[in-house]
Amino acid sequence: MASAEAGPSSASPLLRLLSDPSSSTLIKQGAEAKVYRSYPCGPASSSSPPSWLLKYRFPKTYRHPHLSQTITAQRTVSEARALVRCARYGVEVPVVELVDEKEGILALEWIEGASVREWLGGGAEDDESSVSTRGEVCLPATHCTRLISPLPCPSVQLMTAIGHQLALMHAADVIHGDLTTSNLMVRSTPTSSLSAFRVVLIDFGLSFSSASTEDKAVDLYVLERAFLSTHPHSAHLFQRVLESYGERIGQLWRDPWRDIRKRLDEVRMRGRKRSMVG
Question: Where in this chain does the record put each Protein kinase domain (predicted)?
Answer without folding.
Answer: 21-278
